[in-house]
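Entry 12.
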Amino acid sequence: MKNFSVISGLLAIIFITLAISQVNGLSGAITPPKIDIMANASNGFPQDVNSIIYIKNPNDFPVRVEILTTGDLNNSEKVEVKINENNFTLKPGRTVRVNITFTVKENDKYEGNILTKISPLDYGDNKEGVSLKASVVLPTKVAIMVVDSENYIKKMAITAVLIMSMLGMGIMLIRKYI
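Predicted 3D structure (tokens):
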């Protein structure tokens, strides 16, 4: 019976120690998760198109933020990406607005991602802060479509006329057989 009490006591101490121990996690938030842009080719090239993303640090410790691009956004001959603020420290609970300018150089469709990499500022070398060695990467999907406004309007008008013609023919057939 005495062994049972000792074992129960040890298990209780271990359980309480595990329940009280602090767990630090790393997270982040970005808005919006997707950017869709339509540019008008009749304005000429190169053409600047602006967008904004918001990055939030919901952690209780500062983080390092690095912004990278992938896909067509890495092809500087076709589209150039300018990020106004990159490789910065974000304090706990703060949100930062990052302006992004896409300079479109050709009439084309572009797809890629803006990757927001969030890492702990202090890797715990001096026994303070976070002892994580991980990063969180949050993607923002980007799609840019450059359209020639004259051709786009003509295509839309032709599509509208075809749809109205089909509806008119459908109504005539319904009247004839009903």
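Annotation: The chain has a mean pLDDT of 83. The domain at 25-147 is CATH 2.60.40.10 (Immunoglobulin-like).
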